[in-house]
Amino acid sequence: MKLPLRALTTALLLAPALANATPIETEGHWLEDYDEAVKVARAEGKDLFVDFTGSDWCGWCIRLDSEVFEHDEWLDAVRGDYVLVKLDFPRKQEIKDLVPNPKRNEELKNKLGVTGFPTIMLLTADGDSFGRTGYKEGGPGFYLKHMAVLREEGMAKLKPVLKLVADYRQAKGDKRLSAWRAVADHLSDAGSKSPGASSCLKIVKSVVVTKSKETAGLIPRAIEVLIQIEDVDLALTQLVAEIDPKNEAGTLEAALFVLVNSSLTKEQLMAATDLAKSYLDAGKIDDTEHGFYIFLLGAHWSARFLDDLDSAKVFAKHALVLDAGEENMRTFLEEIRDQTVEEEEPAEGDGSGQ
């Protein structure tokens, strides 16, 4: 499992901003609140067409709007089957201020594995994906044909998955445990972006959340699958730290590596840094690259966000010992390791002693 160092490199991967771009008007055709759109979809028996866009900077997004989404030929054809949702990730502050729920949009972007713009998701009202695409050249007519193929192929793949989900929900006793394993095995094989993954993920996570005696034996498999599909949050990593505190099974390292490459709040950064310290103290590193990145981000967070230079220097020292990473990363760590705290000189008074 190899992940990009998102926390330090994402900004370098973003496309150049388009200075004269303006956001697409959504009034009348598109909803900008995903959760409200879900309610509408359920009430009207429709699916969701979700556009992850960057309205003021993404050139391909702007072209998709002007070449397809703004045309009545396309709008009239899709509104009978889909509730249209536009989740915007603008860069200009005046446009950011108009986005109804940016935190929820970011959560959905991460949950659905959106890494580029535009990304178009076809979802059921329950959140199960059955299609993923982006910009396609050819205008509204071609895009409608493309969507029809996506829908047909996606629904064909989704149907047996929903059967697994239904079997689990209807099963009792030992049969329910077997049905859970079938769902977990499918998610492990198909991945988090596969049709029906959302419903499967809820089932797999349920044993971690409830921690009941009946399903306690399933927790290790749940953790294994969640790490494999890179769906690890702080709570899961803390649970892993309780189960494998010394990283004897390598689970703590694997969970931490996924966690540190995700989007975290400052409070979560603090907790994640504490977990990284526990991993460092355990002294058992299974994967040198994983250990390097965990220590690298521990150093970065401690120095930049947590105002803890001592911890940053410890992380930097251990990362450098592992002799991994690119040269610019090692230079960054050396700068932290060699950094000294500058004491402020007392201000010159006015002679009054006050």
Characterization of the model:
By secondary structure, the protein is of the alpha+beta class. 36% of the residues are buried. Strands 2-1-3-4 form a four-stranded mixed sheet. β3 (119-123) and β4 form a beta hairpin. The chain has helices at 6-13, 34-44, 59-69, 72-78, 93-96, 102-111, 139-170, 173-190, 197-210, 219-228, 234-243, 251-260, 266-282, 288-304, 309-321, 327-337, and strands at residues 47-53, 82-88, 119-123, 129-133. The protein is 57% helix and 7% strand. The termini are far apart. Among the domains are: 6-135, Glutaredoxin, CATH 3.40.30; 232-339, Serine Threonine Protein Phosphatase 5, Tetratricopeptide repeat (Alpha Horseshoe). The protein has 16 helices and four strands.
Tag the structure with descriptive keywords:
354 residues, alpha+beta, Glutaredoxin, Serine Threonine Protein Phosphatase 5, Tetratricopeptide repeat, globular, disordered C terminus
In short:
The protein has 354 residues and is α+β, with helices and mostly antiparallel strands. It is 57% helix and 7% strand.
Secondary-structure blueprint of this entry?
Blueprint: H1 6-13, H2 34-44, E1 47-53, H3 59-69, H4 72-78, E2 82-88, H5 93-96, H6 102-111, E3 119-123, E4 129-133, H7 139-170, H8 173-190, H9 197-210, H10 219-228, H11 234-243, H12 251-260, H13 266-282, H14 288-304, H15 309-321, H16 327-337
Parallel strand pairs: 1-2
Antiparallel strand pairs: 1-3, 3-4
The CATH class of the domain at 6-135, by name, is Alpha Beta
The CATH topology of the domain at 6-135 turns out to be: Glutaredoxin
* Integer average pLDDT: 89
Largest sheet: 4 strands, mixed
Unreliable stretches (pLDDT < 50, length at least 5) are 1-27, 343-354
Percentage of β-strand residues: 5-15%
CATH H-level homologous superfamily name of the domain at 6-135: Glutaredoxin
Strands of the widest sheet, in order across it, are 2-1-3-4
Report the span from N to C terminus. 62 Å
SSE succession: HHEHHEHHEEHHHHHHHHHH
By DSSP (H or I, 4+ residues per run), the number of helices equals 16
Q: In one word, what is the shape? A: globular
| Helix share, percent | 55-70%
Supply Rg. 24 Å
Structural class: alpha+beta
CATH architecture of the domain at 6-135: 3-Layer(aba) Sandwich
Total number of β-strand segments? 4
